[in-house]
Amino acid sequence: MLMLENVPETVRRYFELDGEGDDDGIVMLFVDDATVVDEGEARDGSDAIRGWRTGAASAYVYTTTITGSEVLGGGKYRVNARLDGNFPGGTVDLNYDFTVAGDRIRRLEIAP
């Protein structure tokens, strides 16, 4: 994950666990009252994030290619990725905006 050298370990682990399909491991990366925003919908707290991972986030089979990353400051990091899979359109470029608190994720926003 050469493109992820400038982000915290917890962000790198998110993508590793996503590639392995480890939903429980991903949920453990988040603080208990974290928020994930994906497809314009916010999911607040561990139960909602678990529901997102086992629902919307698992609806398709895809591979993720990291295309870049940057430090935004104040515990915020952006990872750029290309997803290729069996979803409508087959390919999408997304920004993953992480807010990290200590060694855990406080907020994740995923959008084009």
In brief, what are we looking at here?
This protein has one domain: Nuclear Transport Factor 2, Chain: A. Strands 2-1-6-5-4-3 form a six-stranded mixed beta sheet. The protein is of the alpha+beta class and 112 residues long.
User: Which sequence of SSEs, written as H and E, runs from N to C?
Assistant: HHEEHEEEE
Structural domain count:
1
- In terms of per-residue confidence, which ranges show pLDDT below 50 for 5 or more consecutive residues? none
| CATH class group | Alpha Beta
Structural shape: globular
Rg over alpha carbons: 13 Å
DSSP summary: helix tally: 3
Could you report the average pLDDT, rounded to the nearest whole number?
Answer: 94
- Give the second-level CATH assignment, the architecture: Roll
Rounded to the nearest angstrom, the distance between the terminal CA atoms is 21 Å
User: Strand arrangement, largest sheet?
Assistant: 2-1-6-5-4-3
CATH fold-type name: Nuclear Transport Factor 2, Chain: A
Helix/strand-derived category reads alpha+beta
Strand content: over 45%
Number of strands: 6
The major pleated sheet works out as: 6 strands, mixed
Q: Percent range for helical residues?
A: 10-25%
Describe it.
This protein is α+β, with helices and mostly antiparallel strands and 112 residues long. The protein has a single domain (2-111), classed as Nuclear Transport Factor 2, Chain: A. Helices cover 24% and strands 48% of the residues. The protein contains three helices and six strands; from the N terminus they run ααββαββββ. It has helices at residues 9-20, 23-28, 46-54, and strands spanning 30-38, 41-44, 62-73, 76-85, 91-101, 104-111. It is globular and about 35 Å long.
